């Protein structure tokens, strides 16, 4: 039988993989994918807590939907920034994105 601990371990592993992807990669698309993986790990934990701790209410699922909406907006804005970065610099390296350094 799958318990709450199984879901929490899965969410923790996915969060650590996403954190590594967001911090260690130099490509902006890979960083965005790492952040999305971290947000999905949070959604797994929210849904699991909702199911095991308070199954008659949908509070955890509503929070998960809000996280999904925020993730969709983040992807749209992030991809617009990456496309603009690629058009101006012809690469998507995060190390070379120094627009605000004067």
Q: Can you tell me about this structure?
A:
The chain has 102 residues and is mainly α. The chain has one domain: Helix Hairpins. The chain is 76% helix and 0% strand. Helix 1 runs antiparallel to helix 2 and helix 2 (28-53) runs antiparallel to helix 3 (59-89). 12% of the residues are buried.
Quick recap:
The chain is an all-alpha fold.
Considering the chains and any ligands shown, give keywords for the structure:
3 helices, single chain, mainly alpha, 102 residues, Helix Hairpins
Number of separate helices? 3
Give the mean pLDDT.
Answer: 87
| Overall strand count | 0
Rg from Cα: 17 Å
From the 3D coordinates, which CATH architecture would you assign? Orthogonal Bundle
Give the DSSP E fraction (strand runs of 2 or more residues): under 5%
Which segments are poorly predicted (pLDDT under 50) over 5 or more consecutive residues? none
What's the end-to-end separation, in Å? 58 Å
- Report the top-level CATH class: Mainly Alpha
Helix and strand succession?
Answer: HHH
The name of the CATH topology is Helix Hairpins
Structural class: mainly alpha
In helices, the fraction of residues equals over 70%
How many structural domains?
Answer: 1
Main sheet properties: none
């Amino acid at each position: 039988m799958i318990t709450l601990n199984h879901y929490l371990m899965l969410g923790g592993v996915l969060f650590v993989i996403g954190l590594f992807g967001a911090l260690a990669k130099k490509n902006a698309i890979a960083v965005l994918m790492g952040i999305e993986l971290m947000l999905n790990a949070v959604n797994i934990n929210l849904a699991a807590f909702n199911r095991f701790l308070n199954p008659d209410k949908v509070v955890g699922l509503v929070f998960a939907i809000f996280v999904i909406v925020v993730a969709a907006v983040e992807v749209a804005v992030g991809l617009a920034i990456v496309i603009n970065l690629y058009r101006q610099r012809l690469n998507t390296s995060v190390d070379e994105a120094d627009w605000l350094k004067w």
